[in-house]
Amino acid sequence: MRLPISVLLLSIWAILFTTSYAEEQEESKAGEPSFISTEDASHIISKSKHTNNWAVLVSTSRFWFNYRHMANVLSLYRTVKRLGIPDSQIILMLSDDVACNPRNAFPGTVFNNMDQAIDLYGESVEVDYRGYEVTVENFIRLLTDRWDPDHPRSKRLLTDQNSNIFIYLTGHGGNEFLKFQDAEEIGSYDIADAFEQMYEKKRYNEIFFMIDTCQANTMYERFYSPNILAVGSSRLDESSYSHHSDMDIGVAVIDRFTYFTLDYLEKIDKDSQETIDKLFDVYTFENVHSNPGIRTDLFHRNVSEVLLTDFFGNVQNVVVNDGDEDLLYISNHDKTGELLKFYDEEPEEQISEGIVNSTNIKTSYQIDFGVENEESSDQIIQVSPTLAKRLGLGTGLVVIGLWFVST
Amino acid sequence: MTKLNQVLIIGGLIRFLIPTLLPQVVPILSSINEISTPINSFKSLQEAFYYFANGIELYDGGINHHPPVLVILLSFVNDLGYPVLSNIIFNLIYTLCDIYITYRLIALNQWYHDQWSSKSGSNKYNDDLIASFYLFNPLIIVTNLSHSTLVFSVLFIIETLHQLLVIKNLPRSMIALSIASYLSYTPVWLVIPLLALMQVTNPDVPKVEIYGRNFGFFLMGLMLFIIMSFLITASWQFFYQCYGTIFLFNKIQPNIGLWWYIFTEMFEFFTPFYIGVFNLYSIIFIFPITLRFTNDGVFAFILSLIWLSFTKSYPTIGDLGYILSILPIFKSSFLNYCKFSIVYIILLIICLILSPIFYYCWIVLGNGNSNFFYSINLIWGVIYLFIMMDLIWAKLTLDYIMDNDIKDKEQIDKLRLTQL
Amino acid sequence: MALAETISRKIHKLGLIPKLIKLLPIVSLLLAISSVSWLLILPLEGNYRRTYISENALMPSQATSFFRESEWNIVRGYREEVGKLEAESIEVRNQVIESWLHEIGLITAYHENTLYSIMHAPRGDDTEAMVLAVPWITSDDEYNEGAIALAVALSRYFTRLSIWSKNIIVVFVEDNKVPLRKWVEAYHTSLEETAGSIEAAIVMEYGKNGDYFDYYELNYEGLNGQLPNLDLLNTLNLIGYHEGLHCVIQGTPSTELIKNTYFTRLRTLVRGIIALTLTGIKPKGQGCEAFSGWQIQAFTLKAKGTTGPHDITQFGRLVDSTFRSVNNLLEKFHQSFFFYLMLSTKNFVSIGTYLPSAVLMAVSFTFSSLGTILISGIPLNSFITESSKLLIIFVSIEGICLILALALPLIKIDLSIGLVVISFLPLLLKNYVKKLNKTISFGLIALSLFFISLLIVALLIVHFSLALLLGLFCLPLTFIAQPPKPQIKTLINLLISNPFFIIAIFGQDVFVGLVTSWHDMQCWTWFVVILGWYSAWLGVAIASLMGDFTVEVDKVKKDQ
Fold first, then answer.
1. Which domains does chain C have, with CATH numbers?
2. ipTM of this model?
């Protein structure tokens, strides 16, 4: 009696499984574009179902001796831009006190390698939160998008449920905390709760969380929201190391973990089909000199199916050939080959006129000591010194009187 | 000339001549943070005089924490037109305050002796000794020379006791206490042991009448001052600056107390909670002390005073000095049973030596840090605790002797009590 | 309290207190011995620490220094010119140097005969500065031509670097004791051309060694027991190590450059303590003590030897790299230790480890003082009644010492022997003056010993070396108080603990250096010696020579 029933259940299960599998195949087939083969399309259109990519890149340290954290973040910024994410979808948080630091032998530059091949700070770096704006509060607000209504859009993480977000943190950390600038810390529970809020508000499709600090793996241990893939550079009670110093600049210029990440990512371009587990293979103890950790239990896909461009690049539903340069040329030059101008050259005078004509400027006035001109005085009425003196004397006399009267 | 008069004259001369002949003593001492705190320093009082004379709001700058009536009454002295004369009159005022306190202490000593000598069989210290304990106490001399307004507060506290016990005029003692509370916030809690003391010294009068009536007087005095201050300054800012600063510990400056170090590094989230806890700690022990030691109400009062000084937010070395000078009146009862005085005397000397040295190392040389200085503050607190423990134990010993009516001196010497 | 009572009862039962009281002098001696042996234990393995860099921002030796062969010729050129100035007066010398500095493009100014130049960091904040000081005569009385040339060459080199965040001041001073101190004082008070607060200072001494030197010596003691932040010294050592240079401290001979045994560590420790006590007092200063008291971390570098293999540019690179490291800082030095004792260039002990030594010494004196009172057999109450008289005597002794303290500095001759003799005046007066009564005699000795104990407590942290040496030298005073003793022993004990006797032993110049140290260098050791040590000594001397010490036969011990 039991055997037939079990066979029946098994067959039902098998049918369900195959039909669902077939449905999946159907769906993927349904989105078939018409100008490329199905196979190619199914490779390009990632299985993660996201429609846009965002990146949040944070360096939590400041001061000259933390040059390498700045270089870490700027290197990833450059990579992520190169792979297609536009500035409008990158939130960059830096203290930004390194490029123009007097101690910088090459002012206005930030290098991540002693060969000084790439100047990370050269052009078009858009820092969203600089200096002392990089705080724990701002970071959490950024993730959960809880701002005052007048907070500018360019500084907000305007993600939706179809966004894949790449979050990168670097700085000085410890056991379940990360030090933010001078006197603050963020805890692993804080980030975990922020991610949960994001999940409930449907603000992400998938998150790739990368952190390069000492004892980094402790920071992702507390996550409990789905669809988060996390990578840390070192275990509990382990430090993360810098890779090398530039003897001309006089500081360490890049950390090991980020160096090898970049080393690998430099070989990737926009339409690469490389999966993320190849990146994880680079994180060996010989390379990084610490034990990096990967957390996949919250992530619903297998890492061997996750493309690098799912997080580092931007979504593209088309395959573009290398017509970039032609397009750029066409858009910037007119038919005769002249460079087009996009700005007027008259703005300054207009602005200055505006200021002069403005009626909002307060005329200055004499500042006297005294209560007449005080605007924010707490006094209800003005009490002149003589009156005050009389009152004071009166109080004293009253008290003395009471003294002698009492028995 | 009797010895007492000699002592009084020398004590008075020290307090009068030194600042008159060396006027720079006052500002120097006034800037030493062990001696005067922002709450009671003479420098801020002078600042308040200037504000008052120029019609600026007294509490605008956040520097002045003296109550308005005090500022106004003393400004009469300051505005005489001749700074030298004003300074001399200030010196005279402070000297007279100390001499007045000395007389009151002598009278208190006499009263206490009359109360207790029959029961305990001890002698009292002579009048001149009491006077010299007070007038030649270096902590008090230094506080007086710095013209700190703590002197006035203590004056009225001693006057409170004197009026109650010697002259037996209850309303006056309450008025004196209200003045003391008005001048600095801490004595307001002494009303509790004082009411108990009143009840004990007037056992015939019904309880309700004593408590109700006298508390009413106290409140009336306080209200009078506060309302007059409100009228004088036409705002409630004085309340916040004078008492709010002390209660809420707004100015975190190093002093010889225990509060400042803890609040320096505290997250703002926790600060209100700990302010509440510290203030509660300061207040809550007054009740059990009063209840336990009602048979010697003066002792309860002094013990409360010690406790309040220990847990003050802005203490000075003068606080301990005044307490040490009041303690000799207990010779009539239990001071003989104090056993550990050598310990806290040595600790006191060490603290007094090391505290300015560590402050200098911290601020001027940059060698030391705040931990050095705070460690001495902790030892200063320990001195207070040792004094309290010693006094309480001595008192309990005396109670035991009196309860069991032990008259034999040999037996008393061999007495070893244990706590169960 | 109950616990105290239980213990107290136990003690009474066992009759411990009388026994303890009898043993107090021995306990006091044992404590003093343990205080010294504590120091002897420190150089053993495991009791000291290796030096390390506390402040991450320093990053010593991370930047290449370009002060190399290309600059060597420039140094040689300047050195030859400086060599010609040896016979000239200071005014001519200053003029020549000033002309060179102007060629380089630096602002110069004078303070008396001291010339100094300021390089404002082109991209810096202009709020902080580093100082390079070179005296014309080294502390070994040699013409400092190498260092002067290096200083000018380094100035030229510094102006070509753009990475400075702090200003650099180069000071050319006649010698490294009083003129340098005066310059530092003037900089912080009256000088017009200044460059912000000084964070670090290096004093260079490189005599006529020529192009090559063997190793360098580091001096770091400041006035009044102050030491520079250990991070600065560690930075220098690390830089020297990367350059392959050997460093010595506390006059270690050249044959023991890499020797690190218990004996060398102990020797360095003891020499360090003595050197710290004598800073500001010796006739020849080291240079770095001139910067004490203004929160400036300073040290002196001296090149030794002439055979090499290290060249003068390496010495220059030491300075350059140290300045680069200090340049990296945003805050004042605060991370590492300010109170330490070096056992070798790579080993040290911090205050937590060596402080018990001085505490034991102070406690030893307190016990000795208590022992004096309790053994005398005189009841406590009589001490209390005589206390006012005791205080008057002690205050008058202090008064005499105060007069001496103010008068002696005006007479700049070595009077130490004379003063030793005068100190024994009470011996003569003994026969003409009534003997002091017993209470006063014992009380005065006890008070003096307690005063020494308090003095040691006061100096414990601020000037550990002085506290320790004071305790050691005053130790014979504790042997006096146990009567009956033959007169000769008392006299010997008094003699060897007399401050002026000790000064006379130290050497001739020490007395003059000591009495002038306050005026010249703001060093308060003289006041400690005369108002602390000498007054206590006088108290004990007067009491023991003019007092009555017969002890009562029946020693009724009364517990307190």
1. 20-43+352-546 (no CATH), 62-260+285-336 (3.40.630.10)
2. 0.90
